[in-house]
Amino acid sequence: MRALSCGRQVLAALSTVALLGGCALGSAGQESAGAPRPVGAVTMVVPFAAGGGSDISGRAMADGLVSVRPELRVDVDNREGGQGAVGYSYLLSKAGSPNYLLATETSLLSLPLSVDVAFSHRSFTPIMKLGEDYTLLVALPSSPITSCADAVAQSRQRRVLAGISGAVGPDAVVFSQLERLSGADFDTVPYEGGGETMAAVLGGQVELASLNPSEVMGQLRAGELKALCVFADQRYDYPQLAGVPTSVEQGIPVSFAQFRGVIAPGGLSPQATEFWLEAARAFAGSPAYRDYVASEFLQPRVAFGEDFAAYLADSEKALAQVVRR
Predict the structure, then answer these.
(1) Which sign, positive or negative, has the C-alpha torsion 231, 234, 240, 245?
(2) What are phi and psi of 276, to 5 degrees?
(3) N or C: which end of the chain has fewer CB within 10 A?
(4) Displacement of CA 271 from its chain's centroid (Å)
(5) pLDDT per position in the chain (325 positions), as tens?
(6) Dist CA 255 CA 59 (whole Å)
């Protein structure tokens, strides 16, 4: 896998964060640090651009939390940059404050494994794992590539450009596994989120893209894209995706699930941690959660607090086998 844009983007963005870091913990963060519960508006940080899977997840979680805690106001703040590092670094500066949450996914683990950042998943307070999300390999209907196996074969013979969300994110992990396990050789082009990746494949800047079902379902239905495979060992049960073959079916032994979740800053008081855990559990039992899972085609595998932390630790070990600095 030859990345046409690399970790220098991450480091440049982090340099900006470092310059601003001294004043990032402004008065709002300082006043709420150590509080037993949020006071005033809560900010849901999305570390990627609007329009992608993380943005959809963050907005669904914000609305869902309000649906079970009507006294809350949760505003969404897209802080994209550095393949997610800018958003995570911003949350790092809010230590102790219960007024901030972040819509997290697998970049929380892959970033610290691949570039020099000041955080790991242990820097934050795990609140809830919402579910798991398998990506689809998609292309324009006019593409000569007809399957996941065909994409691998053609990548060995000619230059094939593939769009991914983040140079070190979950899509990069998928293509790294493709290279390691099947001998593929794609030129990957990182973008800041699924929305930009979608635009690139629709506009013909790249031939392939690895995208979540929720990001591409409209285009699949409209015939603007075709799904070559899902990177999983079992097909989706959802009727809209049941006809998409798995990579494993096609002889490509690559299966990778991205998680979706929500974290809070590190250093929360026990009372604040319990406040958000109770709200998350209420959300998980609500119609809003069921609607979110169905609309995003997720596997509803939830975990809270310490169980979510254990999941992150186990996943970090697995990712370390394929993600390297």
Answers:
(1) positive
(2) -75, -35
(3) C
(4) 28
(5) 555 444 444 444 444 444 344 444 444 445 578 899 999 999 999 999 888 888 989 999 999 999 999 999 999 999 998 889 999 999 999 999 999 999 999 889 989 998 899 999 999 999 999 999 898 999 999 999 999 999 999 999 999 999 998 766 778 888 988 998 899 999 999 987 788 999 999 999 999 999 988 889 999 999 999 999 999 989 999 999 999 999 999 999 998 888 999 999 999 999 999 999 999 999 999 999 999 999 889 989 999 999 999 999 999 998 887 776 5
(6) 27
Nearest to 106 by CA among 96, 95, 114, 118: 114
Around 23, how many Cα atoms within 13 Å sit in the side-chain half-sphere?
3
Q: Of 230, 265, 281, at which residue does a domain stop?
A: 230
| Residue 65 tokens, joined | 């939390």
Radius of gyration of the chain, Cα coordinates, nearest whole angstrom? 19
Same domain, 14 and 128: yes
CATH number of residue 208's parent domain: 3.40.190.10
Q: Which domain holds residue 198?
A: 134-230
Tokens of 87: 């958003």
What's the predicted TM-score (pTM) here?
A: 0.78
Q: From the CB of residue 251, how many other CB atoms can be counted at a distance below 10 Å?
A: 11
Same domain, 119 and 261: yes
Q: Tell me if 249 is assigned to some domain.
A: no
